[in-house]
């Protein structure tokens, strides 16, 4: 080790971030999962390796290396920004490291109804009920219990 290398480091603070799903009505702030000593320069890129740039009121990279995607209306959705893979790099005198790709996906807050599929059965026979969840939200909704007249029958 050279004298200038003593006390230098680059490391991942949290390299387990693989996916960030956020509501279009709220936006999201994503810290770069890397740091270093001396302080590292943090930069964000698209998974293609293209530099990202600020888009006023849509996307901003703060001086501290945090990527911010602002709330937006459905008409302002841009898959290039709101449904893409990103990564960040940290660089200082110790070298340069790259985070794994982070999948960033915006979801729209829409009204939806969960209902039970109609079933017919003869008295004394088994009836199988199915909870119908609209496909647009199926990925984000899970059945946690079944109720009959507001009384939980299957926790």
Automatic annotation (TrEMBL):
Membrane-spanning parts: none
Taxonomic superkingdom: Eukaryota
Classification via SUPFAM superfamilies: Immunoglobulin
Protein name, per record: DSCL1 protein
Lineage: Eukaryota, Metazoa, Chordata, Craniata, Vertebrata
